[in-house]
Design goal:
Order of helices and strands: EEHEEEHEEEEHEEE
CATH topology of the largest domain: D-amino Acid Aminotransferase, Chain A, domain 2
Strand order of the largest sheet: 10-9-8-11-12
Helix content: 10-25%
CATH architecture of the largest domain: Alpha-Beta Barrel
CATH class of the largest domain: Alpha Beta
Strand content: 25-35%
Largest sheet: 5 strands, mixed
Oligomer: single chain
CATH superfamily of the largest domain: D-amino Acid Aminotransferase, subunit A, domain 2
Number of helices: 3
Length: about 200
């Protein structure tokens, strides 16, 4: 069976952004398994007492139904550099548990993570969407591999916009940051020259 997962940020015992995680989970179940029954993650997330102070990562693994829920302390990855990787065949439109199509490109002797280029367009890193700034406003590629929940939230709030970002105009931007359910928009800002 094809397995997927959702990563939910838990802050002092409270899950964040559940409505968008619910939406993606149910759309994925419908697309892969033809299931129209709506699940709500709040029915499955019961934060243990020992995980109610601080920031934790809740990983919900599912297929046609919820399989498991795991809680681990959250420590952000120390990402400083990204290596451009070109792949026109890569596909990661759902949050699959099997991620070797992404991770096979990572070589930490060269860079901390990758930035995938598909058909000349900037997409995502191996674990996050990306946003860029020219010093005036923040934009995210209109060609992501995965439509992340934080990306969707920031677009809805008008904090970021979408734009076609290609290899040719990538370095018109001065800085970037990675965003996902755990990082949010307060993640570390890095210079675009750190993309090699």
């Amino acid at each position: 069976m094809c397995l997927l997962f959702e990563t939910i940020k838990i802050v002092n015992g409270k899950p964040k952004n559940l409505a968008l995680h619910d939406k993606r989970l149910n759309l994925s179940r419908q697309k892969l398994f033809g299931i129209n029954e709506i699940l709500q993650l709040s029915d499955f997330i019961q934060v243990p007492e020992e995980n109610k102070v601080g920031i934790f990562r809740c990983r919900v693994i599912y297929g046609s139904s919820i399989i498991s829920t795991e809680y681990t302390p959250y420590y952000p990855a120390a990402i400083k550099t990204l290596k451009l990787v070109h792949s026109d065949t890569i596909k990661y439109d759902l949050k699959y548990l099997e991620r070797s199509c992404l991770t096979k490109f990572i070589n930490r002797d060269i860079a901390d993570d990758i930035l995938i280029v598909k058909e000349g367009c900037i997409t995502d890193s191996s674990f996050a969407n990306i946003v860029f700034t020219d010093g005036k406003h923040w934009v995210t590629p209109d060609t992501p591999l995965l439509y992340g929940t934080m990306r969707e939230r920031l677009l809805f709030k008008g904090i970021i916009d979408t734009e076609r970002i290609t290899i040719d105009n990538l370095y018109n931007f001065t800085h970037f940051r990675l965003i996902n359910a755990m990082l949010g928009f307060n993640s570390r800002i890095l210079p675009t020259i750190n993309i090699i």
